[in-house]
Amino acid sequence: MSRRACLAGAALSLAVFVVAGSWGPDRTVWAPLGGVTADDPRLAAVVRALPGWREALRSSREVVDVVGLVPDEAAFLEALTTWSPRSWFPILIEDPELVLRFLRAFRPARIVRWPTIASGGEARDRRSAILAALEGAWDRAERYESDAIRAVSPEGATGPGIVLISERSPAWCGGVALAAGRRQPLVVWDCEQPPEAVLSLAEALDLCAEIAQILEQVAGPQLGLGDRADFVTLATQAPDRYQIPSGDKAGEAALDDLLGRSPLTLERLAYTGRLIGPPPRAVYQAMASLFLLPESALLFNTYPERTPPWDAYRMDEAAGRLGAILPTRLVQGRRADWAEWHRVFDPVNASGLVFINSSGGPDQFRLRGGRGRTADIPLSVPAAVLAIHSFSAARPEDEKTLAGRWLANGAFVYFGAMNEPYLAAFRTPGLVAELLAAGAPWAAAVCKLMVEDATGSPWRLRVLGDPLYQIYRDPEPGRRDWLSTLDALEVLAVSGPDRREPSLMLRRCRDRAYLDAAAGRDGSGWAEHLAAIDRVVLDPRDRSLYDALLADQVARGALLDQARRVPEAERAPALRRALEAVTARPERP
Asked: Which ranges of 326-441 would DSSP assign to H, the alpha helix?
C-alpha cells in the first residue's frame, strides 16, 4: 500500500467516525469478559498465532555467564558487537541503581567493564556502529533504504516484530538491543511531531497509516496476527497521546494503542510497546526483558470480591494458573489493606511479576484502611507489572506518578491506563495469567482485540517496555563460562579500600557492591567503607554515585541516619525515592 493510499484510508476512517459522531460505541453496551478463557472463539487469532510466536522467540544462543558494563551509548554499541548468533550476554549502561538491581536477579559469574570509546559523535558514525552491532548479532543483514524509510533486517527467519528508533530519542539504544536480541528488523523513524504534543485525531490517523506502510514495506503484506510483524517496539521521540473530539470516548487517548492498527478498519495488525529513557533505563528494560524471568508472582486485589462488575476481576483463577509455573502469592478481600501492602512489599518487592487491582488517580490508589501514594510503591527487583487502575500510566516519565515510580523503582514492563478507561477495558486477571503461562508475549496477553468487545477499539491502555516479553519460555541453552573476545577487558575483582583518596574509595565500594550483588551477599562489608566517606569533599558526579550506593543500603534499613544528613535539595533521585519508601512504611510493633 502506498503512502497516499494509507493516508486516504486514514481520512476515510476519520470521516466515518466524524459522521457517526463518536469514536466507538456507546459506553452502555460495554461489558466485561468475565470468566472468558483462551478457549473463547473471540481469541482464536491469538491462539493460532501463539505457537509461531513461541517458535520465533525461542533462542538457540548460549548465555555467557557475564554481565558487561559500559560507560555510554558508543561503548554500548561496541560491546554489542560481541554478540553472535551462537552466544550473548547482558550489557548495561552503567547506572549503579540499575546495575545492582539487575545483578541480584541475573547472578553472573563475572562482571566485565568496557572503556570509553573515542568517537567524533557524528550521526553517520553511530549508524555505522549500529549496523556493525546488528550484523555481528545476526551474521548477515539486509539493508532497505528509500526516500521514505531506512531499515536493516536479518536474513532468514526473523522475530515476530519490528523496532522503530529515532536517534533523537534517549531510548534508541534499548531498541537496538531488542532488535539484535530478538532478530527483529530495525527501522529509523523520525516522527515530525514533538514528543510533548497532543495530536488531533486526524494527525494520529496519519501516523497510524505511516506505521502500517512501514510494516508492509519491511515485513510484507499485513494479514493480521500470525504474520511476520505482530509487534512494534517504539524507541522514538513520538508523542504518546491524541485527542478524540466527541462522543462517549471524547478526551485524550493512547497513541500507542492506535499505532499498529489498520488505518482502514482499526483492527490490530500489531501490538505496540514503548521504551522509556534515559539511555541506561531503556537498555535496562531491554536486557531485563531478554534475559530475566520472574522467580515469583504477587497478586494484590483491592476490589470487592462479590460485587459486580469488580467480582469478574477476582484473582483466584489467575493465582491458580500462575501457581502452576512459579510460586504465587494472592492477597485480596479484607486482607488487601494498607498494612498488608507494606507487609508483602517491604523492604523490597521480591516478585518479578505483579498484578494489582485498584482505583484512584495518577499518584494515588485506594487500599482498605488508607490511601496509597507514590511513596508507597516499593523498591523492587526487576519486575513486570499489570495495573488495573485508572490514570496510573498518565505520565510514566514522571516519578511522582504510579507507573513512573514503578519504572524508576525497578519495573521494566508495565501495562496500565493513561486516562480513565473504565474497568471493562482490561482483560480479566485470569485470562491474562492463562495467556502468559502459555508463553504469550506480554502485549498479546494484556491487550484486547476489537472482536472481544467494544473496548478493544483504540483506547487508553498502553504497554511500557518490550511488548514481546515472556514470563515463561520454552527451554533454552544453558550458560557458558567465557568468550575469548572478552579477554582484553577489565574483569571486576575484590580490592581493598584506599582511605587516602575518597573518590577512589567510593569506586572500590561501587565495584565491591556489584560483586556482592552478583554473589547474593548483603553488602555489609562495603557499606562500612561507604559510611566512612565524607560526602562533602566529593565532586557532584561522585556525590550522585555515593547517593545511589547509599540508597541501596537505605532500602534495606541501613545507614538511615547518614542518608538523612544529606541535604534534601542535593539528594540524587535514587536516594530521595529510597527515603520516601522508608518513611512510608508503617511502624512495626
From this structure: 338-345, 402-409, 429-437
Q: What is the pTM of this model?
A: 0.93
CB atoms within 10 A of CB 386: 25
Q: How much of the chain, in percent, has pLDDT values that exceed 70?
A: 91
Largest separation between any pair of C-alpha atoms in the chain = 76
pLDDT in tens, 308-341: 899 999 999 999 999 999 999 999 988 999 999 9
CB atoms within 10 A of CB 305: 15
Q: How many CB atoms lie within 10 A of CB 115?
A: 12
| More confident of the two residues 341 and 143 | 341
Dist. CA 165–CA 167, nearest whole Å: 6
For residue 192, give the amino acid letter. Answer: E
Which residue pairs from 504-509 have beta carbons closer than 8 angstroms and sit at least 24 positions apart in sequence? 505/529, 505/532, 505/533, 506/530, 506/533, 506/538, 506/542, 506/545, 506/546, 506/549, 507/545, 509/533, 509/549
* CB contact at 8 A, 287 and 34: no
- Cis peptide leading into 294, omega within 30 of 0? no
Is there a contact between 514 and 111 (Cβ–Cβ < 8 Å)? yes
C-alpha cell at 448: 484486547
Residues with Cβ within 8 Å of 516's Cβ and at least 6 positions away in sequence, in order, are: 522, 523, 525, 526
Q: How far apart are the first and last CA of the chain?
A: 67
Go through the chain and tell me how many residues it has. Answer: 589
Cα–Cα distance, 197 to 220 (Å, whole number): 31
Which grid coordinates belong to 37?
478463557
Q: In angstroms, what CA-CA distances link 578 with 369, 460, 560?
A: 24, 31, 10
Residue at 406: amino acid letter: W
Q: How far is CA 89 from CA 33, 73, 292, 467, 540, in A?
A: 40, 17, 11, 20, 32
- Mean pLDDT within 485-504: 85
Q: What is the pLDDT of residue 39?
A: 79
> Does the pLDDT value for residue 14 go beyond 80?
no
Collapsing DSSP states into helix, strand and coil, what is residue 311? Answer: helix
Q: Could you read off the pLDDT of 510-561 as tens digits, one per residue?
A: 999 999 999 999 887 899 899 999 999 999 999 999 999 999 999 988 999 9
From CA 149, how far away is CA 146, in angstroms rounded?
5
DSSP state of 390: T
pLDDT of residue 589: 43
Q: Which residues pair with 340 in a beta bridge?
A: none
Residue 503 corresponds to which amino acid? S
